[in-house]
UniProtKB/TrEMBL annotation:
CDD domains: M14_CP_A-B_like (cd03860). It comes from the Eukaryota. SMART domains: Zn_pept. Residues 80-376 form the Peptidase M14 domain. The active site is at 342 (proton donor/acceptor). Keywords: Carboxypeptidase, Disulfide bond, Hydrolase, Metal-binding, Metalloprotease, Protease, Secreted, Signal, Zinc. Signal peptide: none annotated. This is Peptidase M14 domain-containing protein. InterPro entries: CARBOXYPEPT_ZN_1, M14A-like_propep, M14A_act_pep, Peptidase_M14. GO terms for biological process: proteolysis. Belongs to the peptidase M14 family.
Length: 379
C-alpha cells in the first residue's frame, strides 16, 4: 500500500515539478503558494496521500530567522580595533541583511590596490535626498576615528530608535579612507600617519592625506620633504585616496547645488569639533552657523558623559594647515556644513586608546552626531 502511494506520489511529484506555485524542498516536504493551496490539498486527498501542514506561514519563519541573524550581525564588537578586512566584511553583511536601506559601493582604490568602500544608507527618495557624508581614517594611526564611523553605521542601521535620522536624509560613510596606512600601522609601525605611496626619496614613503587636497595646497602647515609626517605630496590629489574622495564629492554636485549638506571627517586625539578654515585665520561665510551647531553638539555629548571638546575655527583654536579635506570640501560652496572631529586621546601617546575605552568613547560622542543629523533633517 505504502509503495503504491509512493509511486503514485512520485508521478504526482513529476507532474508538479513544472508548477511554479509548488516548490519541493525535499521529496516529502513541499512549499505551496497560498493561491495554490486549496487545489493542492484536493489533489492529495484524491490520490490518498496523507499530508499535514508543518509550517503555516513560511514568510513568518523567514522573517524570524532574519531577525535572529540581525542580532548576530551586531557582532562587530567594540572591544577591539578591527582590521580593514573585518570592516569590509561587516559592511557587506549589513548590505545583505538590510538590503532595503543599505548598500556598499566603492569610491576607488588605495595606492596598494585596496578598495575604498562607502556604505550608503537610504530609506528612499531615489538619490534625491540630502546627504550627510562621513569619512574617517585618512590618518592611519588614529584608530578611534574609523571605530567612530563604524559605530555611527551600527547606530543608524541596527538601532531602530535612530530611524528618525534616516527618514528623509541619506548617510554615506567611508569608514576607512587610508586602508594601506591603517594596515601598516597595525602590522609594522603603530604610529604611521600617512598613505603608503612611493616618493622621490628612497626610504621615505607616504603623503599626509590631509595636506594633499587642492585648497591652498603646499601653503602653511605642510612640508615638501617626502620624509616629513606632513608631506604635502608632489601635487594636489597625487594620492589615489584623496583623488577618490574628490571624485565622489564632485559627483554629488547637481544644478541646484550639492546633495551633501554636512561633511564630518574623523581624526584623533585633540577632542575638538573644528570648522573651516584651517588654512587661514579669516572666517568662513557661515562660520556662525557652524559654530552654533558645533556648540549644541558638544553640549549633547557632554551630557552623555563625553569630554569637553574644543569648539572653534581650526586655524584659530588649533594651528593653521592648508590642503585639508575639510577646507576643500567647504570651498567653492561644495558643502555648507563641514567639521573635523578630533576624538579624545587615550593610552600613553594619545593614539593608543586601549580597546577597553572604545565603547565608552564612541558611544559618548554619538549624541553629538544625532544633533547634527537632526539639524540637517530640519533644514
Ligand atoms: N589634526 C588634523 C591635521 O593636522 C586637523 C586638521 C584640521 N583641518 C585643517 N584643514 N587644518 O590634519
Ligand atoms: Zn588626523
Amino acid at each position: 500500500m505504502r509503495v503504491w502511494l509512493l509511486s503514485q506520489f512520485h508521478d504526482f511529484h513529476i507532474a508538479l515539478l513544472d508548477d511554479v506555485q509548488v516548490d519541493f524542498w525535499s521529496k516529502d516536504d513541499v512549499m505551496v503558494s497560498p493561491s495554490r493551496q486549496e487545489s493542492f490539498q484536493r489533489q492529495l486527498n484524491e490520490m490518498d496521500v496523507a499530508w499535514e501542514i508543518s509550517i503555516d506561514n513560511v514568510q513568518t519563519v523567514v522573517q524570524e530567522e532574519k531577525e535572529s541573524l540581525q542580532g548576530e550581525s551586531r557582532s562587530l564588537s567594540r572591544d577591539k580595533f578591527h582590521s580593514y578586512q573585518e570592516m569590509k566584511d561587516y559592511l557587506q553583511e549589513l548590505a545583505k541583511l538590510y538590503s532595503n536601506t543599505v548598500s556598499v559601493g566603492s569610491i576607488g582604490s588605495s595606492y596598494e590596490g585596496r578598495d575604498l568602500p562607502i556604505l550608503k544608507i537610504s530609506s528612499g527618495g531615489d538619490d534625491t535626498r540630502p546627504i550627510i557624508l562621513i569619512d574617517a581614517g585618512i590618518h592611519a594611526r588614529e584608530w578611534i576615528a574609523p571605530a567612530m564611523a563604524l559605530y555611527i553605521i551600527q547606530q543608524l542601521v541596527e538601532n531602530p530608535s535612530n530611524a528618525d535620522l534616516i527618514a528623509n536624509v541619506d548617510w554615506h560613510v567611508i569608514p576607512l579612507l587610508n586602508p594601506d596606512g591603517y594596515e601598516y600601522s597595525r602590522k609594522s609601525s603603530r604610529l604611521w600617519r600617512k598613505t603608503r605611496s612611493k616618493t622621490k626619496r628612497k626610504g621615505c614613503f607616504g603623503v599626509d592625506g590631509n595636506r594633499n587636497f587642492d585648497i591652498h595646497w603646499n601653503g602653511i602647515g605642510g612640508s615638501t620633504d617626502p620624509c616629513s609626517e606632513t608631506y604635502v605630496g608632489p601635487r594636489p590629489f597625487s594620492e589615489p585616496e584623496t583623488a577618490a574622495l574628490r571624485d565622489y564629492v564632485m559627483k554629488q554636485l547637481t544644478k541646484s547645488g550639492s546633495r551633501i549638506k554636512l561633511y564630518l571627517t574623523f581624526h584623533s586625539y585633540a577632542s575638538g569639533i573644528l570648522y573651516p578654515w584651517g588654512y587661514t585665520w579669516s572666517q568662513a561665510p557661515n562660520a556662525n552657523t557652524m559654530k552654533a551647531l558645533a556648540q549644541e553638539a558638544n553640549l549633547a555629548q557632554k551630557r552623555a558623559g563625553g569630554h569637553d571638546f574644543t569648539v572653534g575655527q581650526t586655524a584659530r583654536v588649533f594651528y593653521a594647515a592648508a590642503g585639508g579635506s575639510d577646507d576643500w570640501v567647504a570651498s567653492a560652496g561644495r558643502v555648507p556644513l563641514v567639521y573635523t572631529v578630533e576624538m579624545p586621546r587615550g593610552g600613553n601617546w594619545g593614539f593608543d586608546l586601549p580597546p577597553s575605552a572604545i565603547n565608552r568613547t564612541v558611544s559618548a560622542f554619538w549624541p553629538a552626531v544625532r544633533v547634527m543629523g537632526r539639524h540637517v533633517q530640519r533644514s
